[in-house]
Amino acid sequence: RKAYDCAHLDTIMRTRWMIGGLLAVPLVDTLLLLPLASEIGLLQTVLLVVLTGLVGMLLVRAEGRHTVAKIQQRVTTGELPTDELVDGGLLIFAGALLLTPGVVTDLIGFAASIPVTRIPIRTALKRYIIMPALDRRSEGFVSGNVWVGGTPSEDVVNLDPEEYARSTEDKDDN
How many other β-carbons are positioned within 10 Å of the β-carbon of residue 109? Predict the structure, then answer.
């Protein structure tokens, strides 16, 4: 019962942060567009917003075609297109942000659509969001973080994959 309450509370807090973030982005965009409009003019600001939307659409379209081609290539060779699928999700996210008027949404959208910045975003997304979520669902089987010999005791040492194989000299020293 207590574990359920903690998980439920965690879900509620995560939802509150998500709603707060979704409300903060338009507010920050508005607070940045107003001084920009007073500095360069209303017409130029509107043209800038429309131009970034059009350029963003073209960029996302081109990157989307490239990503679909990479997915097809990986599938025909029998490989799983995991990175390409994450890229596709990031491109959909980038397209939505680039169509939304604003400076902050355009910066985030361009960062998610340009390959040079999308690759580190994809890596961080996989490491900090996708893998932990899959680990929670599979009880550690995705990352290999499972115990196969009962419950862990205090004398158990976690090793990195490169430390699994020890030479006989290392064993003799102990």
Answer: 26
More confident residue, 153 or 46: 46
Q: What is the pTM of this model?
A: 0.72
Stretch 51-58: mean pLDDT, rounded? 92
Contact 70, 84 (CB under 8 A): yes
Any idea what the Cα angle at residue 60 is, between residues 48 and 118, rounded to 5°?
100
Which ranges in 41-127 belong to alpha helices (H)?
Answer: 42-76, 82-99, 103-113, 115-125
- Among 6, 63, 4, 52, which Cα is nearest to 29's? 52
What residue has token string 């491109």?
Answer: 91
Radius of gyration of the chain (CA): 23
The mean pLDDT value for 87-100 works out to: 93
* Rounded Cα–Cα distance for residues 12 and 7 (Å): 9
Residue 168 has pLDDT above 80, yes or no: no
C-alpha neighbours within 13 Å on the C-beta side of residue 116: 1
In three-state secondary structure terms, 32 is helix
Neighbours of 48 (CB within 10 A): 18
